[in-house]
Amino acid sequence: MAACSQADATGQWQAYAFGYQQGQAPYWQRCTLQVKANGVFENTSSSCTANTGATSAVFGLVRLIGSQACIFDGYIYINRATMNRSKDHVDGVGMFPNGLFLFNMTKP
Q: 61 with 53: CB under 8 angstroms?
């Protein structure tokens, strides 16, 4: 597998997540994420829409923590995510208080 760099995360991504929070019904979200070169989400052009139709802004970042294995983490509750060899798809998991989610991201 080719090594990854922080620059590989830069650009626009379409993300989809499925999650569960204790005491709540399962949910899903679709997001458009614009990642700047430093890994920070451009909050004026990044947002998520929930299965309820509610839309929210996205704040956070992704950062490379394992270049050879293309492993990233972040602080929108992303615990671990891995990029594929062509560097246009990511799968990952996240946890937050009393809940968890699975997600994937694809560069359009």
A: no
pLDDT in tens, 26-63: 999 999 999 999 988 898 999 999 999 999 888 888 88
Q: Which amino acid is at 107?
A: K
**Exposure letters 70-106 (e unless 16+ CB within 10 A, then b):** bebbbebebeebebeeeeeebebebeeeeeebebebe
CA distance 102 to 37: 24
CA distance linking residue 19 with residue 41, whole number of Å: 21
Residue 20 bridge partners (DSSP): 100
Which CB contacts under 8 angstroms, 24+ apart, belong to 85-89? 85/1, 85/2, 87/2, 87/4, 87/8
CATH tag, 6-106: 2.40.128
